């Protein structure tokens, strides 16, 4: 209890200090009587609470639905013994009992054979079949002599006589030398595979191995081929029979997607194909995957071929395709890790938000293609929703949150959405949120051209005074992998940003075109060919519009920061728009995109061989001479993806140009900069210190004339 009270005291003391400092603001920002060092030390407890003790993280609710949907199984601690126990709750009544071990859960173990007598086991780089009755083990796949060959996507055939798998051969993927932090004076060298833009990627092939019978152990390789430059695989699965395999083949640039049906030991038949001059499947892979219907007669899939992410069904022979979700709106995602279909009653469930791209709600449409969109999530719960469905689709664990309110988990009926009972209130987190969130984050829209309006979020200081002007600190990502403007608890480093706001800054985040907002395929693909130029223009235009429409924005004090792709956009902003931004903090950026990984970068920019101009226009390295403001670059020497050499080229260029900048390398840390005690707090303290020292916090009068 004393520890809990002390934590609350530290947080409250920090808020009191921040409020006092804001109140003492002058036309030079914060009063000079409080030093940066003092501000940092006062903010440390709050950052430690966030990153070391996880006090702003929601408590998850974890349960498994029983196969018959009558209840769910939860792992709990026995109040008397303190030991872990498994408890079964009845869905309708809430009555509980200790699990007897005979319960069948709705999520099947894909390594267990359909009849439950055998289990697949990984053994080094090979796989075994374990007979659960006799204990006998048999090799399923021989261990490759090549250490770079692995087997993945293992699955049993419906009749349990065959096993499907994908072989990945990375032997031609080039190796990077990386220092191993063992002996400080004589470090070892480790070689890691890294498929850089334009280089060799893993070779893939699909195999079927017989498990029983005279041919046990023999492998049949399906006639699925790739061109010389390679490609990728999406869905690889059995289409509800044991004689055929469905394979989703993606081109190397992901601009072509094919759904193929391969006879085991026989020919391959195309079912569906789509191409897009940009990409058919992006880096999130949301469009990829299928769901079989009608006992294998047709399947459901997602596509943006008509301009929106929509659901379609197509017959197994590929001759009849039907649109299920007509209308100008996007499916944000499937309603679970896989598609949620209620075949018994004829419904398909998914997430969408036709009116607000920052939120997410459960919807459904009829499977017969009549196209009537029905929202299941109640209209009085604006924000972000997640569902975990029971096998019969009549119940769901429902998680609801907003950017300003912690998650609540309840059990609901489907489709009525009647709440049966609360499963997790997160009451302690709600109490902390009441202390921390002095001013709720706001969602706004900024019209930057006649045809383009962007979503933005804004967090104001605790003692905000709209008659004064405040510095703006922009958090940017701006690339196709994710949005930052989401009405969801914990989104986009919001806890850190609230800490920054209470120091006397307005913290803003903006989703430019090219981010994966549910605003249509044209919005998302607008950045194709060159990541950087469009996001830089629209981020800067949005800041200008924010200042034009809100007198409390101080354009003489604008900073920007971001992580990964956001780090790249920070560099582009600072180099290309030096009169807009006075400060930038780029964490693990990629200033030389041609040195980045092939899997991500080639989707959106192809290779320099076919798109030299796009790479030149994208690379922050080529615009480094535009730097005027303060710049901090942060990375880890143990980076395995945005590896340090990508950044060191920019460091050398800035040195060559004689540009002053700051550079922090965290030893042996990877992309998330989490390894090592205290690292996460140290990174945020570094960002906070650099901001305080170079972009004065606090309010100034709206007029520059003396008062």
TrEMBL record:
Record keyword Plastid present: no
The Peptidase S9 prolyl oligopeptidase catalytic domain, residue ranges: 500-694
Cited Pfam families: DPPIV_N, Peptidase_S9
Gene Ontology MF terms in the entry: dipeptidyl-peptidase activity; serine-type peptidase activity
Highest taxon, organism lineage: Bacteria
Stretches assigned to the Dipeptidylpeptidase IV N-terminal domain: 152-407
Swiss-Prot/TrEMBL keywords: Signal
GO biological process: proteolysis
Signal peptide residues on this chain, from the entry's feature table: 1-25
PANTHER family the record matches: DIPEPTIDYL PEPTIDASE 9, PROTEASE FAMILY S9B,C DIPEPTIDYL-PEPTIDASE IV-RELATED
Protein name: Peptidase S9
């Amino acid at each position: 209890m004393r520890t809990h009270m002390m934590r609350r005291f530290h947080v409250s003391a920090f808020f009191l200090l921040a409020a006092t400092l804001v109140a003492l603001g002058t036309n030079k920002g914060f009063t000079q009587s409080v030093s940066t060092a003092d501000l940092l030390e006062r903010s440390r407890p709050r950052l430690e609470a966030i990153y070391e003790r996880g006090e702003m993280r929601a408590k998850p609710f974890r349960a498994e639905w029983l196969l018959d949907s009558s209840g769910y199984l939860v792992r709990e601690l026995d109040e008397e013994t303190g030991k872990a126990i498994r408890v079964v709750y009845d869905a309708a009544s809430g009555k509980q009992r200790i699990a007897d071990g005979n319960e069948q859960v709705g999520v099947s173990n894909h390594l267990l054979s359909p009849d439950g007598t055998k289990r697949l086991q990984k053994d080094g780089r090979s796989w075994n079949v374990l007979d659960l009755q006799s204990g006998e083990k048999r090799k399923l796949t021989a261990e490759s002599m090549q250490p770079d060959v692995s087997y993945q996507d293992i699955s049993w055939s419906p009749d349990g006589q065959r096993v499907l798998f994908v072989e990945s051969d990375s032997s031609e993927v080039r190796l990077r030398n990386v220092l191993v932090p063992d002996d400080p004076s004589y470090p070892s060298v480790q070689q890691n595979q890294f498929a850089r833009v334009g280089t060799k990627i893993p070779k893939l092939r699909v195999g079927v191995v017989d498990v029983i019978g005279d041919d046990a152990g023999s492998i049949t390789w399906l006639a699925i081929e790739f061109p010389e430059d390679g490609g990728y695989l999406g869905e690889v699965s059995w289409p509800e029979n044991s004689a055929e395999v469905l394979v989703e083949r993606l081109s190397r640039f992901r601009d072509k997607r094919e759904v193929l049906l391969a006879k085991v030991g026989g020919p391959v038949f195309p079912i569906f194909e789509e191409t897009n001059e940009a990409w058919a499947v992006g880096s999130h892979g949301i469009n990829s995957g299928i769901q079989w219907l009608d006992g294998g007669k047709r399947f459901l899939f997602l596509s943006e071929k008509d301009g929106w992410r929509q659901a379609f069904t197509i017959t197994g022979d590929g001759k009849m395709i039907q649109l299920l979700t007509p209308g100008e709106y996007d499916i944000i995602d499937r309603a679970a890790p896989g598609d949620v279909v209620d075949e018994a009653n004829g419904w398909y469930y998914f997430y969408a938000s036709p009116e607000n791209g920052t939120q997410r709600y459960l919807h459904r449409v009829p499977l017969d293609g009549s196209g009537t969109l029905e929202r299941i999530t109640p209209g009085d719960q604006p924000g972000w929703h997640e569902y975990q469905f029971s096998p019969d689709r009549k119940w769901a664990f429902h998680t609801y949150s907003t950017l300003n309110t912690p998650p609540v988990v309840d059990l609901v009926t489907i489709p009525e959405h009647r709440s049966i009972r609360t499963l997790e209130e997160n009451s302690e987190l709600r109490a902390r949120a009441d202390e921390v969130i002095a001013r709720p984050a706001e969602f706004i829209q900024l019209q930057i051209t006649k045809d383009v309006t962007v979503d933005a979020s804004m967090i104001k200081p605790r003692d905000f005074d709209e008659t004064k002007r405040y510095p703006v600190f922009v958090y940017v990502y701006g690339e196709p992998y994710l949005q930052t403007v989401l009405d969801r608890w914990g989104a986009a480093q919001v806890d850190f940003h609230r800490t920054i706001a209470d120091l006397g800054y307005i913290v803003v985040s903006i989703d430019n075109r090219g981010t994966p907002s549910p605003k249509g395929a044209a919005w998302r693909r607008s950045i194709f060919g060159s990541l950087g130029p469009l996001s830089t223009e629209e981020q800067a235009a949005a800041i200008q519009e924010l200042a034009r429409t809100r007198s409390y924005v101080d354009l003489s004090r604008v900073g920007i920061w971001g992580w990964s792709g956001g780090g790249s956009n920070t560099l582009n902003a600072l180099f290309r728009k030096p009169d807009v931004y006075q400060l930038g903090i780029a964490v693990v950026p990629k200033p030389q995109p041609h040195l980045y990984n092939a899997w991500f970068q080639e989707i959106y920019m192809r290779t320099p061989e076919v798109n030299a101009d796009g790479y030149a226009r994208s690379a922050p390295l080529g615009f480094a001479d535009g730097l005027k403001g303060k710049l901090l670059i942060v990375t880890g020497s143990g980076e395995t993806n945005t590896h340090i050499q990508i950044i060191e080229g920019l460091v050398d260029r800035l040195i060559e140009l004689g540009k002053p900048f700051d550079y922090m390398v965290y030893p042996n840390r990877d992309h998330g900069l989490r390894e090592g005690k205290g690292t996460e707090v140290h990174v945020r303290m570094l960002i906070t210190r650099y901001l305080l020292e170079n972009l004065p916090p606090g309010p100034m009068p709206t007029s520059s004339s003396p008062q």
